[in-house]
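chain below, 268 aa
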Amino acid sequence: MLLNFSNNLEPSLVQHIVNFGLDSSFTALSLVMILPELTLFIGLFAIVIISGMYNKKYPINITIKTVRLVSYVITVFSLLVVIILWLNFYITPANINYKNLFFQDTYSINFYTQFLKIVVTISTLSLYKYFNLLNSRANTIELLLLIHICTLLTFIIISSTNFIVLLLALEGFSLALYILTTVDRSRGGIIAAAKYFVFGTLGSILILWGVVHLYSFYFNVSYRSILTLCQLASINNTINFVQSSYNFAIISILLGLLIKLGAAPIHQ
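prediction:
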């Protein structure tokens, strides 16, 4: 019966099949909309190249102050672009609820995602002041690189509309965060990172288990498609077990996210 139900809904789900290729409607405007992500992505390569030219033994090479300045400029430019795009949605009231979908509906940009990206970028800039990255004498190239990786992957997590994209971005974010945990070694940062890695692996297993569970019932990993299928399944009293499987998978995913992010009460 479940197979018959899925077959009846198959025509409405064709447009949500996961495809990581570029849409045929991908235009210059689409490129502008993802400009903050492109800025951070290109900035990562710039930091890597410049840091490779840095060497303490030869004063002719690029100094670490240059690396810090480039990293700071990249973050500020990304913040300005995000704010401009957010204002574009805010100025025109009709655009507030409008969504720009990219990469076969696996990536969404709208008023709310841009606002969250502004918060994330401002938080990244606050790290420069908290760690005094611009004036610190310590070699902070790796720290700057990891912070940029976390910022970029956080952007992807915010705009993702697909569990596969979410899982990949979250794993990359977690790996960078494990290393950042070891920065403060005076307070047992290495031990904390080891514990964080172990529990983070448990969180990844729970998230992956929930995603696989959803896919086994709904044959899809898109947020919108799964929610639509669940709502339609709840109307049919003969397949109520689909609703319970949906709840079980969502609880597993949320629990895994709480563990990965170190949120209360899992932070204990």
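The first strand starts at residue 100 and ends at 102. DSSP finds ten helices and two strands in the chain.
thats it, cya
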